[in-house]
Design a protein that fits this description.
This protein is an alpha/beta fold and 358 residues long. It contains 13 helices and 13 strands. Helices cover 37% and strands 18% of the residues. The protein has a 7-stranded parallel beta sheet with strand order 2-3-4-5-6-7-9. Strands 1-13-11-12 form a 4-stranded mixed beta sheet, covered by helices on one side. Strands 8-10 form a two-stranded antiparallel ribbon. The structure holds iron/sulfur cluster. Its cofactor is [4Fe-4S] cluster.
Length: 358
């Protein structure tokens, strides 16, 4: 490409726009419905609520008090295998959600579960009882990884679980765990592509950490499990973001939420306070890289201000990589609205602030 002064190139960021959904209000029910504890799982420390699941009656009292006077929320039953609960208990939790919905305090409901606990009659019951979205802890679609991680199901069941949720009319969420035993970045990339092909509404990516008290901790101490490192994980997540965004899928979380109990239990693995930002920044770099590499002559970049915290990476870690492609911080302009929200524009001339070149 050999631009004249009027040449410019527009690159659109592929991340889907956020939906106008209410904020998620998580209700953690640790290990509820789980028939055994998975090798890496420490819901009690991951969620900071300990080992005991709150009973439906107590939950009702708590939420009517806590949510009173606030905007409606999306109630999320997390931390266990919700669809494997005894039916009476499941319906009791859903009744609480329905009462809160009737009172105008809840406008959506979601739950998390495993892919092998999604019988059609249970999904039909959820759909009838006000559930909107089911998040499945798929973790991987690779049979070797699933076997080495003791997940107790195969890739076919993972795919069928996703299809069953969509067939029941419920929205689908998929969770993946990069770094599971026997998982390589190439396997994770295939997992991400498989997830994208199943068209979930949302995805979560939880790089695997070694936490005290888990079977994985014993394997790590025995030297039979090595976690991914931070850079490898950021690299894999960046590609995953791009694949999922390009398929129209929102990535609603990358990495576990910070919890003081998690700090205490953390032993090893890719944990970084800015993991998501680092991965998003690297994804943006990879989006712009081909155009910058092909650009000849001086280049400047105009971009939406909302990406200002991502462009140069965490603490400017991507500045040298951009400089190697001819882009330096002094040749960039962040634009407030009405700049197009997803538009990055390379040009040989300075664009007027706040306005796209014609
Ligand atoms: S099914 Fe989910 S919540 Fe239950 S032990 Fe396994 S990872 Fe933890």
């Amino acid at each position: 490409m050999s631009p004249s002064s009027s040449d410019f190139l527009t690159i659109r960021h592929p991340e889907p726009k956020p939906l106008a959904h209410p904020p998620v209000y998580p209700v953690f029910l640790p290990f509820i419905g789980c028939s055994y504890r998975c090798i890496y799982c420490a819901q009690d420390v991951q969620t900071g609520v300990g080992n005991r699941a709150i009973a439906p009656g107590s939950l009702r009292s708590l939420l009517f008090k806590e949510l009173a006077g606030s905007e409606p929320v999306e109630l999320a039953f997390y931390g266990g295998t919700f669809t494997a609960l005894p039916q009476e208990l499941m319906l009791a939790y859903l009744d609480v959600a329905a009462e809160l919905r009737q009172a105008g305090l809840v406008s959506r409901v979601r739950c998390s579960t495993r892919p092998d606990c999604l019988a059609p009659e249970v999904l039909a019951l959820l759909a009838r009882s006000g559930m909107d979205l089911v998040e499945i802890g798929i973790q991987s679609f690779d049979n070797d990884v699933l076997a080495a991680s003791g997940r107790g199901y195969k890739a076919d069941a993972a795919v069928q679980g996703c299809k069953a949720v969509r067939a029941s009319g419920l929205e689908l969420g998929i969770q993946l765990l990069p770094g599971l035993p026997r998982m390589t970045p190439a396997v994770f990339a295939r997992d991400v592509a498989a997830a994208a092909a199943l068209a979930p509404s949302v995805a979560r990516l939880y790089p695997l950490l070694v936490l005290e008290g888990t079977a994985l901790a014993r394997r790590w101490r025995a030297g039979s499990y090595t976690p991914w490192d931070v850079d490898q994980t950021v690299d894999a997540l960046a590609d995953a973001f791009l694949t999922l965004w390009r398929a129209g899928i929102r990535v609603i979380r990358a990495g576990l939420a910070p919890e003081s109990t998690l700090d205490d239990a953390f032993l090893a693995g890719p944990r970084h306070p800015a993991m998501g930002q680092r991965a998003r920044s690297l994804a943006l770099f990879r989006l712009l890289e081909p155009a910058l590499a092909a650009w000849q002559g001086p280049v400047r970049l105009d971009y939406p201000r909302r990406f200002q915290g991502e462009l140069w990476g965490h603490r400017g870690e991507l500045v040298p990589a951009y400089a190697a492609l001819g882009l330096i911080p002094g040749a960039t302009t962040p634009h407030p609205e009405p700049w197009e929200p997803d538009c990055f524009r390379l040009s040989a001339v300075e664009a007027p602030a706040g306005k796209l070149p014609d």
